[in-house]
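Supplementary notes for students who missed Thursday's class. We covered one full example, reproduced here. Read the sequence, then the structure, then the short commentary at the end.
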Amino acid sequence: MSGDQAVERTGARAPHDPRQRYRALPEPIRLADVVETQESQPVPDPTAGRDPERDFMLRYL
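Structure (token representation):
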């Protein structure tokens, strides 16, 4: 089945110039809508308050 037959069966037509789709820009987004306005929580300590360098020294030296 060729491409022309598929277009005829579905009745859909592709735009003749795909660049037409990008001629107009979308509505601009306000910066207030983009920036996070909620307070963030501090990140938990990945070492849980332990000193891995000290633990290594006590274990292996």
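Commentary. Residues 52-60 form the longest helix (9 residues). The radius of gyration is 30 Å. If anything here is unclear, bring it to office hours.
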